[in-house]
Amino acid sequence: MIAHYRDQGGADEAVADVPDGATVLIGGFGSAGQPVELIDALRRQGAKELVVVNNNAGNGDHGLAALLAAGQVAKIICSFPRQVDSWIFDDLYRSGRVQLEVVPQGTLAERMRAAGAGIGGFYCPTGVGTPLAQGKEARTIDGRDYLLELPLPGDYALIKAHRADRMGNLVYRKTARNFGPVMATAAATTIVQVGQVVATGALDPEAVVTPSIYVDRVVCQGQTGPEGGAQ
Amino acid sequence: MSSPTYHVDRGPLAKDELAALVARNIPDGSFVNLGIGQPTTVADHLSPEQGVVLHTENGMLGMGRAAVGDEIDPDLINAGKIPVIETPGAAYFHHADSFAMMRGGHLDVCVLGAFQVSVNGDLANWHTGAPDAIPAVGGAMDLAIGARQVFVMMSLFTKTGESKLVERCSYPLTGVNCVTTVFTNHAIFDLSPHGARVRAAYGISADELRVRTGLILP
Asked: Which end of chain B, N or C, is more open, meaning fewer C-beta atoms within 10 Å of its C-beta?
């Protein structure tokens, strides 16, 4: 890990080394926080047989949905694939062209948190007594039933933040934060799309949500400059 | 426990009456999550004096009403992906924290819809089990086992007249022994491991309620 992230230029350069078969954690809850520029770059790059982790399975025809439509995704791990505008996933799933692993939303987040925090697994009460408990080790602790859930690490995380400084410290904006901070910790290589890059020191250290240690590459879609911009 | 009240001089509760009733049953100062769909309408009946703080599982406490016009911000949405506004005192957090709040027992109440609820509090609200249905669970299982009180808000009967409060759920479960109170258009039921108890009924007699649900209801 380098203390100062290398300026990767554009989104295409940032995702250039993603290999076929990689597990890619993709941020966003619906469209909020979805790193569309990075996903589009991954689509142009053409890596195949990807395992994608996201809360959903694409909306409309753009972003993650377009990556699915391009046939680059072998499996999606998500909590809520079925939506009114998930027609691309729906078609692929029904015709057996993409595998699906459904994980409760909080368990999905916590499995990635565990991966990023060096936790080998955790006992979780969510899903006990349901079809999603099948095949999982169960344990009763202090009279309550739990399931063993395993960490979910990524080879890459593609996330969106509001603003980065030149070290890669991140702040987010409103509910677009969602999975970003957790995914940033859980991937071997974290690539962030931001709207603005400000000078090192221009972010209030008390307000930094994702410390730079988790960030490898930043792609700026908006203004960038050594003097930074408005906070 | 007090005996049930049967309001037979009126019809069943209309949707907004039901939402208002659920709102009145939320204790003042509670942290509350309202599920997608009908439960969302409970927010319209919460008074500012109640001091209820709404949680949305995509990462916010202090969620306000639906945004209109210039207020619409694609970065500020609720769990149903509807643009909303923030209220004074709002806070944002990431997904792992948001669900830690649930599982950790910090949410006082959640209000969920349901396909079926069993008399001992099992909830089925995520999957019909139909072979061609695409499974999608979202935060339903986390909410079901996480909130201290789980309210279900639903019509008591399906369109074809079957009771959705049942002895045993036939649909795949979301959570076990988790529902505390069921608010329906015909009756309110308090649930416990010992079974369902009618708190109040609207436009239906005790006998008719027993016949139409097929349940033993003390």
From this structure: N
pLDDT (tens digit, 9 = 90+) per residue, B5-25?
999 999 999 999 999 999 999
Interface check A126 vs B, CB under 8 A: yes
CB contact under 8 A, A29 and B122: no
Q: Around Cβ A103, how many Cβ atoms within 10 Å?
A: 23
Range of the domain at B135: 5-44+107-213
The tens digit of pLDDT for each residue in A147-202 reads: 999 999 999 999 999 999 999 999 999 999 999 999 999 999 999 999 999 999 99
| Strand bridging mode B60-66 / B84-92 | antiparallel
Q: Is B57 a catalytic residue?
A: yes
**Domains in chain A: ranges and CATH:** 11-127+136-222 (3.40.1080.10)
Which residue among B57, B71, B86, B162 is the active-site one? B57
Q: Which residue has the higher pLDDT, A135 or A30?
A: A135
Contacts of B173 in chain A (CB under 8 A): 129-131
Residue B174 is part of a domain; what is its CATH number?
Answer: 3.40.1080.10
